[in-house]
Specification:
about 325 residues; mainly alpha; 3-stranded antiparallel β-sheet
Length: about 325
């Protein structure tokens, strides 16, 4: 797939804009809830910075290294451009790894806050440690693939290099495995909670959005199989797009459970502007939990809430289930 220089830049502009939009929407939701920022929020801010930095480096590669164009069309400065492309790849790799690890850790910290079951929290901590170990492994793999590192872009100097094809494949497969685990992790606990099936399905869809990241890395794996080292600028184009897309999807997946206050505010403002609010309706609050009531129906419906209580049912012999409370924040 060959895009024009403008087309390549437009793709990464979209990623930057979406990254910033999702991060700001999450922060706005926190402000609407009058909640201070937590570890998972700071991790998303960091992931956003990494996502924007990644796209900015891709801009530079497109403009100055011929990224996205066939190597045969790079002109008389082809050698210098290929060296620059390789150097930028060695910078962008760690930036992507930091961004990918940040949104994964954000999801894990959110799950840790939501579910207070002891065994689940221990499992979540285990996945946090695994994610940090994965990040360290990715960084070491990039920086130690060639000894010295400069041999990667200058094969004439003395030294050795490892199998770069295996490294690129690891870059695609390993995050796919982690994202699959993140998608499955909360579902068994979620479906044991005492709540309406419709709500369980909705929350499962929210947490199941990790499948989008899994699919992205699956596509990356297919691209890696056909990676052409002889045409580096073209080969790196699709890799760069898929890595930037993964960070954007990750920020969206990690932020989705927190965006209800912002969504509700936009919907309410839109309805008010369009004159769709019924005069018979009124809102009232109970502490910091807000409800919407139609006078024709005495039962209040949920509009926004600062904190919800989830109850997990556990089978306890013939005496029936026992109830264990779990407190959760920022869920739809």
């Amino acid at each position: 797939m060959v895009l024009s220089v403008g087309g390549n830049i437009a793709v990464f502009v979209v990623f930057m804009v979406v990254d910033l939009f999702l991060c700001l929407a999450r922060l706005w939701s926190r402000w609407l809830m009058k909640r201070s920022l937590r570890v998972d929020d700071y991790l998303i801010i960091f992931a956003t910075i990494m996502g924007v930095a990644y796209s900015a480096l891709e801009f530079y590669a497109i403009e100055h290294a011929g990224s996205g164009q066939p190597a045969s069309s790079l002109g008389p400065n082809a050698k210098e451009k290929l060296v620059l492309e390789t150097k930028l790849t060695n910078v962008n790799g760690p930036v992507w790894a930091f961004g990918s690890a940040a949104f994964k850790l954000s999801i894990l910290f959110l799950l840790y806050e939501i579910f207070v079951t002891k065994w689940f929290r221990r499992l979540t901590i285990g996945f946090m440690v695994l994610t940090v170990a994965w990040l360290i492994a990715m960084l070491l793999a990039v920086w130690l693939i060639c000894r010295p590192l400069a041999k990667e872009w200058d094969p004439t100097i003395p030294g050795t290099c490892g199998n770069e094809q295996k490294l690129i494949m690891t870059y695609a497969v390993s995050p796919m495995i982690l994202d699959t685990c993140l998608m499955i992790l909360p579902l068994p606990v979620l479906w044991r909670l005492q709540m309406a099936t419709k709500r369980k399905v909705g929350l499962s869809i929210v947490f199941g959005l990790s499948f989008c990241a899994v699919a992205t890395n699956a596509v990356r794996t297919g691209i890696t199989v056909n990676y052409n080292h002889e045409d580096l600028t073209m080969a790196n184009q699709l890799q760069g797009i898929m890595q930037a897309l993964e960070i954007t999807l990750g920020i969206g997946i990690a932020s989705a459970p927190t965006l209800q206050p912002a969504t509700a505010a936009v919907v309410s403002s839109t309805r008010s502007t369009m004159g769709l609010l019924r005069p018979s309706a009124q809102s009232y609050s109970n502490g910091r939990t807000y409800y919407y009531m139609d006078k024709s129906n005495a039962a209040p419906s949920f509009q926004d809430q600062d904190e919800i209580t989830l109850r997990e049912l556990r089978s306890k012999g013939q005496g029936g289930p026992s109830v264990a409370s779990a407190r959760a924040s920022t869920l739809p």
